């Protein structure tokens, strides 16, 4: 017998008319982790950001992630709904955020904040790359709590039944992503960033690491029902969007190590 995903009310806290969802709490965990670990990260002598600047950086990032993530979801995953009802963009409480859109928003915010500080773009992205993984991991835990974005049917011993899908045992792909894109990638980048690196190297490693992990998990993750497979009977939208990330990350790392110091 396989364990069944426990039904967890998506609303974590209700205070009068105010309802706080678990997924929203996971965003707060990610932002709080960014601020706390970021202040530690900023104590390194070669850091582009000082500890007392992390809060302002986080503010820019939050705005960029929310706007970019919502736009990315509408354009990449739910374009038909967006065309018929553009106001769906502001219905954040209904869910629907795209990592790739959030990444673009975060990069735009990094560029703006870097201009404010007079610090180069890649020095900012090198700083935030390890910290981003905290939010990625927390977000996937939120997906698991909600019982959404489940994996494909399987008979592996650690499979789980997600009643919202059916009664078949499935890969708990949300937990795979939390472990890989969250914990594992954070440790890789944090250890890599313990020593001074060429400008852009940490950013490039983040793109490669996330891209490879996401591409792998997509093989056992159920594709979005309204999109399905893009090509060849196995290629998903997540994989299509991830390949350019890996190529760009590899190119940035080559550039970082070959450019004059």
TrEMBL record:
Enzyme Commission number(s): 2.5.1.145
Keywords: Cell membrane, Lipoprotein, Membrane, Transferase, Transmembrane, Transmembrane helix
InterPro entries: Lgt
Pathway(s) it belongs to: Protein modification; lipoprotein biosynthesis (diacylglyceryl transfer)
Localization in the cell: Cell membrane
Residues spanning the membrane: 20-37, 58-77, 97-114, 175-193, 199-217, 229-257
Protein task: Catalyzes the transfer of the diacylglyceryl group from phosphatidylglycerol to the sulfhydryl group of the N-terminal cysteine of a prolipoprotein, the first step in the formation of mature lipoproteins.
UniProt similarity note: Belongs to the Lgt family.
Name of this chain's protein: Phosphatidylglycerol--prolipoprotein diacylglyceryl transferase
Originating gene: lgt
């Amino acid at each position: 017998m396989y364990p069944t995903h426990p039904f967890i009310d998506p609303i974590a806290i209700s205070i009068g008319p105010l309802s706080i969802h678990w997924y929203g709490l996971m965003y707060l965990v990610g932002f709080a982790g960014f601020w706390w670990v970021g202040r530690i990260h900023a104590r390194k002598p070669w850091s582009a950001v000082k500890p007392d600047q992390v809060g302002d950086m986080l503010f820019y990032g939050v705005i960029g992630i929310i706007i970019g993530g919502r736009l990315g979801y509408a354009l990449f995953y739910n374009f038909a709904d967006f065309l018929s009802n553009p106001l769906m963009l502001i219905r954040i409480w209904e869910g629907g955020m795209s990592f790739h859109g959030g990444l673009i928003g975060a990069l735009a915010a990094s560029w703006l904040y870097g201009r404010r500080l007079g610090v180069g773009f890649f020095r900012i992205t090198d700083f935030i790359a390890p910290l981003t993984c905290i939010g990625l991991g927390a977000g996937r835990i939120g997906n698991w709590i909600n019982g959404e974005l489940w994996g494909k049917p399987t008979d592996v011993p650690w499979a789980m039944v997600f009643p919202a899908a059916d009664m078949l045992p499935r890969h708990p792909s949300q937990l795979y992503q939390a472990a890989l894109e969250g914990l594992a990638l954070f440790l890789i980048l944090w250890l890599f960033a313990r020593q001074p690196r060429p400008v852009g190297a940490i950013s490039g490693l983040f793109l490669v690491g996330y891209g490879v992990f996401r591409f792998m998990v997509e093989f056992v993750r159920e594709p979005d029902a309204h999109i399905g497979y893009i090509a060849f009977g196995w290629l998903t939208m997540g994989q299509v969007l991830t390949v350019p990330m890996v190529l760009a990350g590899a190119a940035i790392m080559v550039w970082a190590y070959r450019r004059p110091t």
